[in-house]
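INFO  loader      accepted 1 record
INFO  loader      residues=265
INFO  predictor   begin
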Amino acid sequence: MTALAAPPARFRDLLAAEWIKARSLRSTPWTIALTALFVVGSAAVSTLADDGAGSGPAGFRPFDAYPAAGYWTLMLVAGSMGALTVVSEYGSGLIRTTTVAVPARGSVVLAKAAVTAALWTVVGTALSVSSFFVSQAVLDGRGGGVPITHPGVFRALTASALLAPVCALVGLGVGVLLRHAAGTMVTSVFVLLMLPTMFSESDRWSADVRHALVAAAWNRLVQPWDPGSGSLAYTATVPGSWTVYALWPLIMVAVAVFVVRRRDV
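INFO  predictor   done
INFO  writer      dumping tokens
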């Protein structure tokens, strides 16, 4: 008798499987909840501590609503959680079972990327909107709040919402490349958080490197004003910063798909 081959897995089945993996981890909801508490709390604390945010409606103050401490923490957590979707399977050996069940490794990575992007887009949007309204609630008591329709607010809100999925996909790509938990975490933290601090905007080459990094792009996008020349010779542009947002996850996922198709598990 001839054995019947199992039908190939449909992509929606891969999405469902990856979603089950994501929500079945007990650490996922706790990590998201604690991150949300810290990020939104940092917006409230930053606004309360801003002595200049209370002299009337002087305009949108983005770094009260989106303080660096909160959103750099969000970058760290999202990047780490994105990496864990891959390195946890390599560490436990589950990846071998996955690739036996689904030989199309590229499709598996794309399914992981889709679920990761969707999850962290929802989380990032909820945190961005919450941070804005919490900060403006504080400022309203001082007569300095602005509505969500105020110029510059929507761009800052969108950039802060998309920061989480961008970093999560970067972490996922690094995880596929390195396949080692400690190495992946260190590399993700270095690329997302530490590398931008090593470059300034005073020299053209240094500014070009800095502007190509996610943290610098987010920093530019949340600014509702034009930095102008000032003391810095080179500043990032808004279209260029959006391009950085788009290219980093696209390149990392593309590289991850290319790599898994051409190497052994």
